Amino acid sequence: MWVTNNASFDIVLEDPLVQWEQGGTIVSSTSAGWSGKDSRTNLPAKNAVFFPIEDVPKEVTRFRVTYSYSRDGGPLRMAVSRFLRRFRLPQKLAPWMYRNGLIDGRVRREIEGAWIPKKIDPATAESIDRAAGSKEAQRLK
């Protein structure tokens, strides 16, 4: 499965998690990393990174991938975060401030992928195989 950064800025991908439904319960696995290596990776603008889903058992009917990312919030957020560190602010504001870069200047977001059927019909599998053999897919490998 590929994750693409279509933004004009670099991002840092973190904490990948694969979830699947098995027997009516949601099972999570953190064993796979970005490109099969680390749980944290830099993803430059207009680039993609591979996330392996081999951990998902074959008998599963659906799965999804969740992860978080962060990016530089820019000089204004960095200046505001430095200014705000001088004050004792209410704890209930901390999560919002952290997500929006007002603690350390980095903006953070959580991504929860859509549930994807694990078993697909043969026609869809054939079109995926054809796309994987295309010149564009070969160039990305």
User: What would the average pLDDT be, to the nearest integer?
Assistant: 81
> What's the number of domains?
1
Largest β sheet strand count, sense and barrel closure: 6 strands, antiparallel
Using the coordinates shown, work out and report the CATH topology: Immunoglobulin-like
Termini, distance in Å? Answer: 12 Å
Number of helical segments?
4
**Gross geometry:** elongated
Rg, please?
A: 19 Å
What is the CATH architecture annotation?
A: Sandwich
CATH structural class: Mainly Beta
| Unreliably modeled segments | 134-141
- Percent strand equals 25-35%
Helix content range = 10-25%
The arrangement of helices and strands along the chain is EEEEEEHHEEHH
> What is the SS-derived class?
alpha+beta
> Got a strand count?
8
Characteristics of this structure?
141 residues, alpha+beta, Immunoglobulin-like, 6-stranded antiparallel β-sheet, two-stranded antiparallel sheet, 8 strands, elongated
Mind explaining what this structure looks like?
This protein is α+β, with helices and mostly antiparallel strands and 141 residues long. The protein has 4 helices and 8 strands; from the N terminus they run E-E-E-E-E-E-H-H-E-E-H-H. The protein has a single domain (2-70, 109-140), classed as Immunoglobulin-like. It has helices at 75-84, 94-99, 122-132, 135-140, and strands at residues 2-5, 11-22, 25-29, 40-43, 47-50, 62-72, 106-112, 116-117. A hairpin with a 2-residue loop joins strand 2 (11-22) and strand 3 (25-29). The radius of gyration is 19 Å and the shape is elongated. The two termini are 12 Å apart. Residues 134-141 have low confidence and may be disordered.
